[in-house]
Amino acid sequence: MTGQTQLPTAVGPVEGDPVHPYPPGLLAEEPVALVDLLDRVLAKGVVLTGEVTLSIADIDLVHVSLRALISAVRPDLYGLPRPPTGPTPADPWSDHDHL
Amino acid sequence: MTTSDLLGRSRVEVDSPEQGLVALVLTIVELLRQLMERQALRRLEYGDLSEEQVERLGSTLLDLEQTMAELRDYFGLTEEDLNLDLGPLGPLLPR
Amino acid sequence: MTDLASWLYAVVPADSAPPLADLTGVAGEPLRLLAEAPIGAVVGSVPRRWLERDPTGAPTDELAQLVRGHHRVVAALLPHAPVVPLRLGTVFSDDDRVRQLLRQRTDHLTAALARVRGRAEWGLRIYQAAPEPNPTTPEPVGAVVAGRPGTAYLLRRRQERIRQQQARAAALAQVQQIEQTLAPLAVAVAHPKSTGAGDDDKARLIRNSTYLVDNHRVAEFRTAVQQCAEANPGLRLRLTGPWPAYSFIPEESP
Questions:
Q1: Could you say which residues from 13 to 72 on chain A have a Cβ atom under 8 Å away from some Cβ of chain C?
Q2: Contact call for B7 and A65, based on CB within 8 A
Q3: Contact B62 C149 (CB under 8 A)
């Protein structure tokens, strides 16, 4: 079996801020966005039954959304510290590394 | 990459548990308001309301919309802030 | 049982030679190819302890990190061999178990490799462009004259709703035409439901599609997408790719 022919170079970032939509109609080729990754890596790909349970990835996105919502309202329910009252309350998630 | 990015609620700044709760409550109220408004428009189309009834219905909904705008302003929330991400089910409020 | 487990990234032909020395896996581990001719698996050893971390500690950022790490490996293989990507979280007790699985599923995985050879996946998300600010709708004269603001409000809202529905119907018609243009350039098309997580324009998404395209037709495909974008100023098209063919793995026949 031969390998594949060389693929075209991956789509890279282009001029323009990806946060602000491109003018309507113009094609925007953007670097890999999280939503596209999640749609594929979590929901597609070959499914083979593994043997070791992945505690982290077992939490599906709905579960995470609701938990985060509840914990934002009632952090004491999830053992998270209550944000201090005052002008800048702490975000319990904020000290995790940003990707 | 923040948690809120991952959850698709990129514009919700939950500064305190109280504001988060207010946003939740106002989202539900907004949902009801939209449902009532849609129902009212259907009745309008159906054509079985008197002019007086239409005016009363419209005034109520107009007041409700204005009150919602004031509440949002008061709590520092935008229209986009009022929504619940139900994950695979999509957002609670359409569009 | 050792304290390591085998994380499975992708299936490739056993005789392919991807540059694994240049890559690291989800746990920063080195990678290896387990060959069970004609197929092989790219795996890495990850500590079990690491896999079974307490999930109550802010799992979402760690999940995103896992997703990116897994995909980084899979995507790096793509220029070098046909790739059948594994869904996230396929972990085995050891390499022997992985080999056993490869032998059991040889036919299915060989067919999957044939399906994706010389091809890549391209994602196309179509959004409705932000609406122009509403031209001030002149209030229906009758209601204003009669001093009936409530009625005027309802009539205005009805007009807005009708306009929204028309815009949406027009957008859907345009999307259909775009798909008719692009489908012949692809080997296969799928329209999976998107989770929407992390999409900051989620509310305006009209269509999420993904296309399996022969590599030698990619330039033609991309040009066609660009032309569709220019021909439909009311829509915003977002193309991503090339992806390993996550969405086009054939089901195993019973």
A1: 19, 21-22, 24-30, 32-48, 50-59, 61, 64, 68
A2: yes
A3: yes
Q: What is the ipTM of this complex?
A: 0.82
C53, C87, C116 — which closes off a domain? C116
Interface A-B, measured as beta-carbon pairs within 8 A, has a size of: 49
pTM: 0.72
Distance, CA of A21 to CA of A26 (rounded, Å): 10
Question: Which chains neighbour B (Cβ–Cβ under 8 Å, 3 or more pairs)?
Answer: A, C
Range of the domain at A68: 52-80
Q: How far apart are CA C244 and CA C198, in angstroms?
A: 21
Domain that holds residue B26: 15-77
User: Of A21, A28, A44, which is closest to C247 when you measure between CB atoms?
Assistant: A44
* Number of domains within chain C: 2
Residue B27 placed within a domain: yes
Tokens 């990678």 belong to C31
Does A16 reside within a domain?
A: no
Per the structure, the complete domain to which residue C231 belongs is given by 119-136+167-248
Q: How many CB atoms lie within 10 A of CB B61?
A: 19
Instruction: Tell me, yes or no, whether A59 lies in a domain.
Output: yes
pLDDT tens-place values along chain C, 254 residues long: 678 999 999 999 999 999 999 999 999 999 999 999 999 999 999 988 877 766 555 556 777 788 889 999 999 999 999 999 998 888 999 999 999 999 999 999 999 999 999 999 999 999 988 766 555 555 555 555 578 899 999 999 999 989 888 988 999 999 999 999 999 999 999 999 887 767 777 778 889 999 999 999 999 999 999 999 999 988 999 999 899 999 999 877 65
**What gap in Å lies between CA B87 and CA C245, rounded to an integer?**
24
Residues 6+ apart with CB under 8 A from C33: C12, C14, C16, C18, C20, C40, C41, C42
